[in-house]
Amino acid sequence: MKLRAGIYLRVSTFEQVKEGYSLQAQEDRLTNFALAKDYNLVAKYIDPGHSGAKLDRPGLQAMIKDIENNKIDIVLVYKLDRLSRSQKHTLYLIEDVFLKNNVNFVSMNESFDTTSSFGRAMIGILSVFAQLERDTITERMSMGRVERAKAGYYHGGGNFKPLGYNYTNGLLIVNEFEAMVVKEVFGLYLQGKGPRQIVIELHDKYPNQVTTRTKVKGVLTNPLYIGKVTFAGEINDGLHEPIIDDKTFYAAQKIHDSRLVYSYSNYEQKGLLNGKLYCGRCGAKYYRQVTGSKKYRYVKYACSSKNWSSPKLIKDRKCDNSRYNVAELEQRVIKLIKKLTLKDLTAPELDETAQKKKAYKNEIKSIDNQVDKLIELFQFGSITPEKINERIEKLNEQKIHLDLLLKELDEKRDEKEIKTALTNLNKFNWETESVAKKIKMVDYFVDSIAVDGEKLTVSWNL
Question: Global pTM?
Answer without folding.
Answer: 0.40
